[in-house]
Amino acid sequence: MNTFLSAEQEAVRQSYLSFANEHIAPLAKDLESHKSCLKEFLQNLGQKGYLGIAVPREYGGQGQSFVFCALFAEAVGMVEPGIGLSLANHYAIIEVLKRYGTETQKSRYLPLLARGEALGTIAFSEEKAGTDFRAVTSTVAKQGDGFVLNGKKSWVVNGEFAGLALVLAKSAESNDALSLILVDCTDKVQQCTGDAGRLGLKSAYLNTVEFKDQKLSPEASISHAKDAADQIAIFSMDVAKVIMAAAAVGLNFAAMNEALEYARTREQFGSSIGQFQGIQWKFADMGTEGEAARLHVMRAAWSLEGEPETFSKSAAMCKWFAAKVARHHSGEALQVMGASGLMEDNKVEKLYRDAKAMEICLGTSEAQKMQLVDLLEI
Ligand SMILES: Cc1cc2nc3c(=O)[nH]c(=O)nc-3n(C[C@H](O)[C@H](O)[C@H](O)COP(=O)(O)OP(=O)(O)OC[C@H]3O[C@@H](n4cnc5c(N)ncnc54)[C@H](O)[C@@H]3O)c2cc1C
Fold it and tell me: Which residues of the chain does CATH 2.40.110.10 include?
């Protein structure tokens, strides 16, 4: 880890871990069961500066590099990975605004996003457009000075209380070309279903959001040039994937720590099970592959600013690899804990469910490989 972090960066990382342990871990169960209000929790993170880590200072953020967002997501992933999904969406829209936004868009939204007064989300998926996200049927048409949006979006993270959504639609005017628009959700014109119950990452909300003749200002469009929508959509997903992968790294080490504690104290055949080589080797694998995933994530996070031409490749690699490592090794951690690991009040049971969802959300593992096949020109 320290290979890439200065002493100052390492100190910040330690402060993130302390914050996650002291202020997020005690709420994890209530956040997962929605007994604690997620919107208030996220707004509180915003007030403390964690939502605006990479927002430039002139727009009210901390002005840090994107690497710090990944470090924060890893710390969060150790205690409540579902929050990592919310962060992934939020940080993605921030990076899109920073790279592609007009000055008006940046000065209007970045301060709100940094303070958590608006929570960001990405609304690409539809009932018939998942991995093939370009198959969206939502439409955006010019109307007067502005636009009008129609369509139904599936699996929108925190859609029911998002303040700003990045929405992918077909442009009604130009031969079905893709268009990306920023929708200020505070208008409340859109309709929204309740949270979709599911296996994992349950603390984040997952809503279907329908836009019916939603009027948008002339400033709503963020994809002006030809092919820009496709490029920006991929960029936003790449940012979100790196954050999700960072949370997966945290999840892997959290599962490992839980299982280690158990292996040291659980006795069978007259000794602790941690004395058996069959158990010890599981930890050797968890530690090694966990560190490899962490290096992948750190490289991808660094490349956003340090080597932008390799960012997309690194993002796809680290999402695929970190989610696989988290799913496999949280399963191994559960195995170490035997029947206790299967119990609903066991943290590893929850981490295992969350890890599986990580292999699907923000693009499946197969989708990451498809992206890599393109980028590596196989
Ligand atoms: C927890 C969670 C959060 C999400 N958050 C968001 C969000 O904020 N915004 C948003 O827009 N969407 C979101 N999604 C949707 C997510 O991006 C999609 O679920 C994902 O892209 C896969 O689409 P699908 O579920 O329709 O599966 P499908 O595309 O129908 O795929 C089904 C299976 O076929 C495989 N497959 C598809 N095409 C190919 C191919 N060409 N070659 C090989 N295999 C293929 C897939 O990998 C998968 O295994 C979220 C989903 C989840 C579960």
Answer: 121-220
- In the reported structure, the alpha carbon of residue 184 is separated from the centroid of ligand 1 by a whole-number distance in angstroms of 25
Protein residues with CB under 6 Å of any ligand 1 atom? 85, 89, 121-125, 130-131, 155-157, 201, 206, 357, 360-364, 366-367, 370
Ligand 1 center from residue 155 Cα (angstroms): 10
Question: Could you identify the atom of ligand 1 that is nearest to the CA of residue 132?
Answer: 29
User: In the block, which residue shows the tokens 């010019």?
Assistant: 142
Q: Residue with structure tokens 């660094």?
A: 302
Q: What are the tens digits of pLDDT across the range 58-82? A: 999 999 999 999 999 999 999 999 9
CA nearest ligand 1 atom 37, residue: 131
Q: Report the top-level CATH class of 121-220.
A: mainly beta
In the chain, the amino acid numbered 79 is V
Architecture of domain 228-375: Up-down Bundle (1.20)
| pTM of this prediction exceeds 0.85 | yes
Query: What digits encode the pLDDT tens for the residues 133-178?
Result: 999 999 999 999 999 999 999 999 999 999 999 999 999 887 779 9
- Classified by CATH at the fold level, domain 7-117 comes out as Butyryl-Coa Dehydrogenase, subunit A; domain 1 (1.10.540)
Q: Where are the alpha helices (DSSP H) in the chain?
A: 7-19, 28-32, 38-47, 66-79, 81-100, 103-115, 228-265, 277-306, 311-336, 338-342, 347-358, 365-375
Nearest Cα to Cα of residue 190 among 221, 152, 157, 155: 152
Our mutation pick for probing the ligand 1 site, out of 360, 372, 378, counting the most ligand atoms within 8 A of Cβ, is 360
Residue ranges of the chain assigned to CATH 1.10.540.10: 7-117
Residue with the smallest CA separation from ligand 1 atom 51 is 361
Pocket probe for ligand 1: among 364, 368, 370, 371, the residue whose CB has the most ligand atoms within 8 Å is: 364
Checking if the pLDDT of 3 tops 70, the result is no
Task: Label residue 1 by pLDDT band (50, 70, 90).
Answer: very low
Q: Are strands 164-171 and 191-192 parallel, antiparallel or unpaired?
A: unpaired
- On the CB side of 258, how many CA atoms lie within 13 Å of its CA? 28
Distance CA 169, CA 164 (A): 16
Write the pLDDT tens digit of every residue in 191-214.
Answer: 899 999 999 999 999 999 999 999
